[in-house]
């Protein structure tokens, strides 16, 4: 009884998102990286601007309270 060798099935990688395989074109996701950095910087700048506005309001409120205390202590 002789055994014949069965052919080994080969697996070919399928390209992601219908584009070329990543090993063939390493720069194909460069646009996604740039978009991610743009979004990150926009979120960071928005956070900084909101924090600055909140800090300015807190400073104004603190000044108002200090004037009220000075008026109260000076008027007694």
Walk me through this protein's architecture.
This protein has 76 residues and is an all-alpha fold. It has a domain at 49-76. The chain is 61% helix and 0% strand. It has 1 helix and no strands. It has one helix spanning 30-75.
Shape: rod-shaped
In whole angstroms, the N-to-C terminal distance is 116 Å
Give the number of DSSP strands: 0
Task: Summarize the biggest pleated sheet.
Answer: none
Radius of gyration: 33 Å
**Helical proportion?**
55-70%
Number of helices: 1
The secondary structure category is mainly alpha
> Stretches where pLDDT falls below 50 for ≥5 residues?
none
Overall pLDDT: 85
Order of helices and strands: H
Portion of residues in beta strands equals: under 5%
Which secondary structure elements does this structure contain, and how are they paired or packed?
Layout lengths: L29 H46 L1
Brief synopsis:
This protein is mostly helical and 76 residues long. It has one helix spanning 30-75.
Offer a few descriptive terms.
61% helix; 76 residues; mainly alpha
């Amino acid at each position: 009884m002789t055994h014949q060798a069965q052919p080994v099935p080969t697996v070919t990688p399928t390209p992601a998102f219908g584009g070329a395989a990543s090993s063939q074109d390493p720069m194909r996701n460069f646009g996604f990286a740039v978009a991610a950095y743009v979004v990150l910087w926009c979120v960071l700048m928005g956070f900084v601007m909101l924090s600055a506005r909140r800090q300015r309001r807190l400073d104004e409120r603190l000044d108002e309270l200090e004037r009220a205390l000075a008026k109260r202590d000076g008027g007694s």
